[in-house]
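User: quick one, sequence for these tokens?
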């Protein structure tokens, strides 16, 4: 098994290792079939702090004049994160096969943003990779602080909205039905607002599994939509 950006680059890597290639097939990763494999697969990620640390280490090594392939090899061997090791080894193998640095980084868009790749491209083109990495560290740190501030600002409103939602569900499913029995025993004519409230409570009691499924499906569909280019543009305009 070998990781490469294309079959041609994989063939070149094997030939450099003096391996006679008789057949070359692309291996497709099977989806995780168990809860354990799903858990392990979900852990293969690079957090913002890990990305900043990786960029800072890469800056220090390039600033010291260490060749990029040797720097990537050392960082991959010293990292405890599986995703970082796989990513750095993939970038290293692409460089060995003759690819340029920005193309090697562009193979992992799930970890490196377009800004990250653009800064790598500028540093490689101008011959000042360490300076580009230093500016990239400043950008990543500012982005991390912005996310922390947004999360801190949204924490209290989220708790309030969540508490109100839970209270409304409890009132609708448990409190209003008790009053409905009292009103039915009295036989009095109720105002239309009270009738609507009681009808809503009865509807939620009879169809709560369907409503829960629809709410969950709508939530995940919305999250998927805002991750698309059109959805991200729409969400950013609204915010």
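Assistant:
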């Amino acid at each position: 098994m070998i990781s490469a950006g294309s079959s041609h680059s994989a063939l070149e890597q094997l030939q450099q290792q003096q391996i006679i290639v008789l057949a070359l097939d692309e291996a497709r990763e099977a989806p995780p079939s168990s809860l354990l494999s799903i858990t392990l697969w979900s852990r293969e990620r690079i957090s913002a702090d890990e990305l900043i640390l990786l960029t800072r280490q890469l800056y220090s090594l390039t600033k010291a004049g260490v060749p990029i392939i040797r720097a990537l090899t050392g960082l991959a061997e010293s990292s405890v994160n599986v995703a970082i090791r796989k990513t750095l080894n993939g970038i290293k193998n692409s460089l060995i096969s003759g690819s340029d640095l920005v193309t090697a980084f562009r193979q992992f868009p799930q970890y490196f943003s377009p800004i990250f790749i653009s800064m790598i491209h500028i540093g490689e083109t101008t011959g000042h990779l360490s300076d580009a990495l230093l500016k990239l560290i400043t950008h990543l740190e500012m982005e991390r602080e912005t996310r922390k501030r947004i999360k801190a600002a949204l924490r209290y409103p989220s708790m309030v909205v969540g508490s109100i939602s839970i209270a409304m569900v409890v009132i609708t499913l448990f409190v209003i039905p008790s009053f409905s029995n009292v009103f039915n025993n009295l036989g009095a004519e109720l105002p239309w607002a009270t009738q609507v409230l009681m009808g809503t409570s009865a509807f939620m009691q009879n169809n709560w599994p369907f409503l829960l499924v629809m709410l969950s499906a709508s939530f995940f569909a919305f999250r998927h939509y805002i991750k698309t280019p059109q959805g991200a543009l729409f969400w950013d305009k609204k915010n």
